[in-house]
Amino acid sequence: MSDVTQARVRDVLNGITDPCSITAGVPAGMDDMGLISDIQVRDDSAGGQRVSVKFGLTDPTCMLLGSFANEARERLAALPGVTGVDVSLDHDMEWTPDMLAPHYRQRLAEHRAVQRARFLPLTPVTTGRAGDH
């Protein structure tokens, strides 16, 4: 019997980096982003385990649905003892920033504070045109 657990599935899925987090400057995996809504691990009749995962997206117009689903399917299917993987989109999930993992939320806040300190306050740019100060 395999030792695939919900925690192990979360760990594997957290290895899939959300592109929005890369853009924000602090890369994070699917679980840290709060995108996983349901995980089921069930024994099958052949001595293996079947894994089912539902996930959401940070924005309903995200074009990476297929990429996330395929990568999740491939990574989970590679786990020893897994005989089947079902990955589906949670159409009812409405992602909000409060779904971020607390440790990731802290890292993001620290990164943003550093960025604000580097770039703010903005210095006015003069063009030499009348009315510019």
Structure overview:
With 133 residues, the chain is α+β, with helices and mostly antiparallel strands. The chain has four helices and three strands; from the N terminus they run ααββαβα. It is elongated.
Jot down its keywords.
133 residues; alpha+beta; three-stranded mixed beta sheet; 3 strands; 35% helix
Blueprint of the fold:
Blueprint: H1 6-14, H2 19-24, E1 36-43, E2 49-55, H3 65-77, E3 82-89, H4 102-119
Parallel strand pairs: 2-3
Antiparallel strand pairs: 1-2
Shape: elongated
Largest sheet: 3 strands, mixed
Structural class: alpha+beta
Low-confidence stretches: none
The overall average pLDDT, rounded, is 89
Count of individual beta strands: 3
Distance from N terminus to C terminus (CA atoms, Å) equals 74 Å
Quote the beta fraction: 15-25%
CA-atom Rg in angstroms: 21 Å
Q: Please list the strands of the largest sheet in the order they lie side by side.
A: 1-2-3
Give helix % range: 25-40%
Give a short overview.
The chain is built from four helices and three strands.
